[in-house]
């Protein structure tokens, strides 16, 4: 039941993120929405640069700790957070001094980044400590706060700054609520932190987060190249940005949920149990990750056109629908390269290998997308070539996982791909009258439930 709640909390976050994007696309003009989208993309990038290494180190080290060691590690993590925030503040000050970006956007982007990094770290500590149900509830509440804050700000003032201020307020309320549930953040003391912990975090976490930074820069690069070609105020750029925003969240959120549920157990077995036990735990994670995301890919291809008729502004529908299937496929491949295939290197603390793989993806995607720009191809072709480049990197980087000996069950993976294909093919069926749409949704749900039930996916 707790695992269902955890999965539900991440699905809820994904749904709220989609609703927020749809709301803002109606409340903000195209130029304001594109500016908001770019600012949030840069903020997410900054969050990864400044704080991802702390998150990764915390998950890896806290999962198998206990007693006084846990308290010391938590205090060291918060000290690392404060040091990273100070470094980020210096970078923001330099950006403000350059005068290239409005000061209001820099300031709001900075405080949003700090607040998100702090809240994410606190929530991670709560769930790793065994309070998975409380962590799930907190994620649901924070997502609701973010939706309400950003939509209220954009609705009242119709500006990028107002929407960003609403995001800041949402994170702040989430941090306050988390501190009521668990007082770790309020009670931490830098005196308990140790240099040895910070050094261990840096050796592992910074290399691992460097790979995340490089991976995250891939869709940002694609976004800037496409927007730069078509112009920030064009409907093509706005529709493409909307597709990137919408379809990034479902895959990343689902895989985050799966790792939240299964990763601590995999780490504990790898550190404290036999190799066979670690292989079994990792295989269970792979089962759930590959099969659930494949079915999600099929559902997105099938039902995004129906949702677009109701929620996407008419001026953006054509450019939005033109890229959604290829954007969905790209993110399916991208998130598995970043998360699923990185599991074994994380277990082995082989963070340098992760950076090499990420750098290879960035280089190959850059070459392919720049070639599409030189050939005057559209956004659909650019993102398709980015997906092809990512698939080639996956084929070249699967070796450590194969040698570790943990794989999804072949028949379950085949059934999931087949089910996803059937669901995706339903896009060709009519969705009017409404009874047809409901029948398509029911059929997709039955296929998903049947595969999950036969595969007993939630047992892991």
TrEMBL record:
Protein name stated in the entry: O-antigen/teichoic acid export membrane protein
Keyword Transmembrane: yes
Subcellular compartments: Cell membrane
InterPro entries: Poly_Biosynth_Transport
Zinc-finger is among the record's keywords: no
One GO term describing the cellular component: plasma membrane
Regions crossing the membrane: 40-63, 75-97, 103-123, 135-157, 163-181, 201-222, 285-304, 310-333, 354-375, 381-399, 411-429, 435-455
Signal sequence residues: none
Originating species: Bradyrhizobium sacchari
Keyword annotations of the record: Cell membrane, Membrane, Transmembrane, Transmembrane helix
Membrane topology term: Multi-pass membrane protein
């Amino acid at each position: 039941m707790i695992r269902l709640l955890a999965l539900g909390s991440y699905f809820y976050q994904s749904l709220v993120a989609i609703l927020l994007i749809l709301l803002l696309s109606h409340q903000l003009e195209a130029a304001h929405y594109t500016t908001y989208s770019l600012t949030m993309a840069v903020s997410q990038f900054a969050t990864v640069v400044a704080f991802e290494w702390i998150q990764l180190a915390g998950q890896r080290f806290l999962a198998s700790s206990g007693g006084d060691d846990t308290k010391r590690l938590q205090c060291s993590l918060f000290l690392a957070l404060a040091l990273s925030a100070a470094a980020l503040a210096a970078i923001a000050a330099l950006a403000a001094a350059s005068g290239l970006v409005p000061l209001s956007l820099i300031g709001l982007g900075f405080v949003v980044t700090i607040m998100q990094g702090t809240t994410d770290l606190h929530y991670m500590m709560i769930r790793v400590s065994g309070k998975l149900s409380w962590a799930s509830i907190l994620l649901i509440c924070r997502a609701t706060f973010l939706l309400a804050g950003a939509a209220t700000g954009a609705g009242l003032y119709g500006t990028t700054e107002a929407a960003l201020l609403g995001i800041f307020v949402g994170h702040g309320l989430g941090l306050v609520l988390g501190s009521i549930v668990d007082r770790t953040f309020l009670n931490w003391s830098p005196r308990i932190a140790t240099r040895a912990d910070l050094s261990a975090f840096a050796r592992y976490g910074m290399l691992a987060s460097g790979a995340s930074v490089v991976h995250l820069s891939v869709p940002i690069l694609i976004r800037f190249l496409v927007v730069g070609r078509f112009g920030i105020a064009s409907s093509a750029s706005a529709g493409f940005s909307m597709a990137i925003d919408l379809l990034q969240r479902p895959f990343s959120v689902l895989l985050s949920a799966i790792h939240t549920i299964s990763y601590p157990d995999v780490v504990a077995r790898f550190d404290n149990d036999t190799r066979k036990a670690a292989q079994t735990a990792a295989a269970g994670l792979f089962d759930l990750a590959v099969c659930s995301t494949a079915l999600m890919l099929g559902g997105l291809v099938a039902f995004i056109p129906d949702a677009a008729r109701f929620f996407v502004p008419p001026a953006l529908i054509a450019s939005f629908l033109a890229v959604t299937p290829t954007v969905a496929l790209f993110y399916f491949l991208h998130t598995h390269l970043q998360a699923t295939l990185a599991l074994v290197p994380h277990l082995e603390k082989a963070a340098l290998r992760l950076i090499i793989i990420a750098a290879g993806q960035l280089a190959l995607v850059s070459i392919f997308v720049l070639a599409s720009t030189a050939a005057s191809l559209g956004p659909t072709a650019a993102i398709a070539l980015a997906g092809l480049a990512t698939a080639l990197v996956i084929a070249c980087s699967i070796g450590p996982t194969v040698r570790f000996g943990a794989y999804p069950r072949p028949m379950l993976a085949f059934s999931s791909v087949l089910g996803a294909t059937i669901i995706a093919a339903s896009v060709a069926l009519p969705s009017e009258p409404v009874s047809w749409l409901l029948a398509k949704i029911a059929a997709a749900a039955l296929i998903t439930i049947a595969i999950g039930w036969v595969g007993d996916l939630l047992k892991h």
